[in-house]
Amino acid sequence: MAKTKTHLAPLDPVWERIRREATQALQEEPFLGGMMHACVLHHRTLEQALAYRFAMKLASAEMQEQLLREIADEAHATDPEIALAARADIAAVYERDPACHRFLQPLIFFKGFQAIQAYRVGHWLWHSGRRDLAYLIQMRVSEVFGVDIHPAARIGKGIMIDHAHSIVIGETAVVGDNVSMLHSVTLGGTGKEKEDRHPKIGNGVLIGAGAKVLGNIRVGNCSRIAAGSVVLHEVPPCKTVAGVPAKIVGEAGCDQPAMSMDHLLRRGNS
């Protein structure tokens, strides 16, 4: 007897957890029923939910929700890495942000996560040659979330931006995997120079609130930039820098500062 083929749906533990948490949130607060159905329970996949949230948050009189939804759906269908990065970002926020108690929260409530996912669609548009649309997405993300990321910037996965107010990331900036940053961080240039002019942030870096990293300089893997610092020179891997201008003040303090989110400078660390 010939064997019949069976088709198993791919497992997606991140999405299944979000759906469970949405159901629980609905039970705890019935007034959120419409929102939870529209944002989560109505959708079959995380990709669909991300596209819906993208469209709902960025829609305006200049670009309607349906058109934005079509753009996001096309981006996710063409580049599966967008949603894979989103899953890593959700896990990063949950693991590093003490205010995050559910996987559901970044998708629904956290503008840092939402801004990064919108940037990823804009980045896809940029590299698809649709640069005016990419600029439109950048503009709307800045207006809605207070986060200004050039669509040409390259940002890895497992990114956590806490509070995410007044973030600026320039055109030629590169941000590695598993990076954490707080509000008012700037990855900018130093003037009107052209070409490659923005920072290159390594993997596992922790950037404190209000820090400015300026110019085409490299910040080594697993380093730590203290809050309020102005970094103008290269930072070696696994070091802590602080001050204006920033100087090396010691080791990073642990193997993965972006994971520990420890911003304290301690005696004996230098």
UniProtKB/TrEMBL annotation:
> What would be one Gene Ontology cellular-component term for the protein?
cytoplasm
The cross-references to InterPro entries, in alphabetical order and at most eight, read: Hexapep (IPR001451), Hexapep_transf_CS (IPR018357), LbH_SAT (IPR045304), Ser_AcTrfase_N (IPR010493), Ser_AcTrfase_N_sf (IPR042122), Ser_O-AcTrfase (IPR005881), Serine_acetyltransferase (IPR053376), Trimer_LpxA-like_sf (IPR011004)
Give residue ranges for domain Serine acetyltransferase N-terminal: 14-118
Q: Please report which protein family the annotation says this sequence is part of.
A: Belongs to the transferase hexapeptide repeat family.
Q: Which organism is it from?
A: Poseidonocella pacifica
Which reaction is this enzyme known to catalyze? L-serine + acetyl-CoA = O-acetyl-L-serine + CoA
Pathway given for this chain reads: Amino-acid biosynthesis; L-cysteine biosynthesis; L-cysteine from L-serine: step 1/2
Keywords carried by this UniProt record? Acyltransferase, Amino-acid biosynthesis, Repeat, Transferase
Pfam families xrefs:
Hexapep, SATase_N
Q: Name one GO molecular function term.
A: serine O-acetyltransferase activity
Lineage, please?
A: Bacteria, Pseudomonadati, Pseudomonadota, Alphaproteobacteria, Rhodobacterales
Q: What is this protein called?
A: Serine acetyltransferase
NCBIfam families (alphabetical):
cysE (TIGR01172), EPS_EpsC (NF041874)
EC number(s) per entry: 2.3.1.30
